Amino acid sequence: MKGSILKRTGPQGPTYRVRVELPRDEQGHRRQRSYTYATRREAERELARLVREIDTGQFADPQRLTVGEYLERWLHDAAKHNLGRRSYARYEGIVRLHLAPTIGGIALAKLRGLHLQGLYRRLQDGGMTAAGIHKVQACAHSAFGQAVRWQMLAFNPADAVTLPKVTRTPVRVLSEAETARLLRAAQVPDPQQRTRLFTPLVVVVATGLRRGELLGLRWCDIDLAGGALSVVQTVAQDGHGVYVGTPKTAASRRRVTLPPFAVAALRTHRASQDEQRLAAGESWRSGDFVFAAVGGGPWEPSNFARSFRALLAKTASEADDGTKIPALACRFHDLRHTHASQLLRLGVHAKVVSERLGHANIGITMNLYAHVMEGLQEDAAQRWDEAMSSAWSATESGA
User: 318-360: per-residue pLDDT in tens?
Assistant: First the structure.
């Protein structure tokens, strides 16, 4: 008999205790393990799973399994199949660098929040930022949450920690004049390279696309006649190289209307790229990417980021009176914030802005751009006051 189910009735109602026989230990002693479940159906299902794992040698005894051994199994059996490639690579790195070396030797059954709290304190003392510690916590919470669902832990120890407060990086929103200055700097003299960085920047400030969405655009996703583009894939990069992925969320798969300025830039860019493709001949790599690497194929996000940083340095200039104008200082992602903020200041409804950005709901947009909305609230109050004052004056004159 490899397993049995025993019903027990207590003050909180019936529970079902599953008992399974394990292979005898090295001294020949009998070994058993017991687990309790809330329903008979769950108990029967888990009993079948436990017996199958024991028979195939895949059974992991929670009472003897270490955190390190469990994390390896979690990465292989759950994370690899449920996470995107980039997220999996990040979690795998966190396990290898931070979790396994420090708490990997602890028995999984004895893991407590205090162990994780101590790990986070050591990481913070070692110079890791609060944002970095939050990423380690996200990995730990996901891993040990799965252990709870697998009945290997009674509770998630990652729920019992206190995390350092994250200081958000201030958003840098460019003015319309600064945006034009950035685009002017991207118009290099070389006709063959003039649209290379200029056009993707035009598209970003005109649509608010994320970097991966921008680099994932193909010409088949662009409707120049209709003045729109469709976000259906992304380009990302991890330790294994560049790969094509799917948009961040379901809402990220969207159609975005293009202003005429962006359509004109794309037409010029396509003509320039066609010339480069003809000159390259068979050596041109396929992929139909709008913003391709030199020689075709996807443009590596890291290389694109380097090109953008180099461009920022070129935005420094000198005014007519000799005053030095410093180079623009912003992240590429700030161009997405710039697009949204400029639209909101122009009076575009937040719902429309949310749809253009690919946010799951308008609440995300409202929270991210609350500082812009505050200014709009003041403007709305002023406009109402002016309209009401005019109407009030009209009733007085007519009285």
Answer: 777 778 888 899 999 999 999 999 998 888 998 999 999 999 8
List domains and CATH numbers for the chain. 3-56 (no CATH), 67-160 (1.10.150.130), 176-356 (1.10.443.10)
Backbone dihedral angles phi then psi of residue 215, each to the nearest 5 degrees: -70, -20
Rounded Cα gap, residues 256 and 209, in angstroms: 9
Whole-prediction pTM: 0.70
- Give the angle subtended at the CA of 292 by the CAs of 289 and 293, to the nearest 5°: 150
Q: Please give the Cα distance from 50 to 228 (Å, whole number).
A: 54
Own/partner pairs, 55-64, CB within 8 angstroms, 24+ separation: 55/2, 59/22, 60/152, 61/22, 61/33, 62/108, 62/109, 62/151, 62/152, 62/153, 63/33, 63/107, 63/109, 64/107
Residue-wise pLDDT for 153-203, tens only, equals 889 999 999 999 988 777 889 999 999 999 999 987 776 676 889 999 999
CA distance 80 to 59: 20
List, for residues 109-129, the tens digit of each pLDDT value.
899 999 999 999 999 999 999
Work out the average pLDDT over 66-91.
Answer: 91
**Secondary structure, 3-state, 271-324:** HHHHHHHHHHHHHCECCCECCECCCECECCHHHHHHHHHHHHHCCCEECCCCCE
**How many angstroms separate the Cα of 74 from the Cα of each of 39, 97, 117, 140?**
25, 16, 21, 11
**Residue 319 to residue 337: CA distance in whole angstroms:** 27
* Burial class, 106, CB count within 10 angstroms (exposed 0-12 / middle 13-18 / buried 19+): middle
